[in-house]
Design brief:
InterPro entries: DUF4235. The protein is mostly helical. It has helices at 2-36, 51-84.
Length: 90
């Protein structure tokens, strides 16, 4: 039964992951704008930004993406468990 729950959760997990990436991207943009007063997040290949600024943006992106992904994935698993009675992970 647990294997069936994990299999059934796969499409849900994929949708949740895509949603978390969209949310995280939006949050990173808001944080970057607040910290730097710039609308665009620096790209590694954009020569107008210093290495320090690009690294700062990457650090913010990594932290926000990791935290949002954990929160959204965990929440999705809890909802799945409430609906099916089975935890989708180990």
């Amino acid at each position: 039964m647990a294997d069936m729950a994990k299999l059934a959760y796969r499409p849900v997990g994929l949708a949740v992951s895509l949603g978390s990436a969209a949310i995280a991207g939006r949050v990173v943009g808001l944080i970057w704008k607040k910290l730097s007063d710039e609308d665009e997040i620096p790209d590694a290949l954009d020569a107008q930004y210093t290495v320090g600024k690009v690294l700062a943006a990457a650090l913010i992106q990594a932290g926000v993406f990791a935290i949002v992904q954990v929160l959204v994935n965990r929440g999705g698993a809890k909802v799945f468990e409430r609906l099916t009675g089975s935890w989708p992970g180990n």
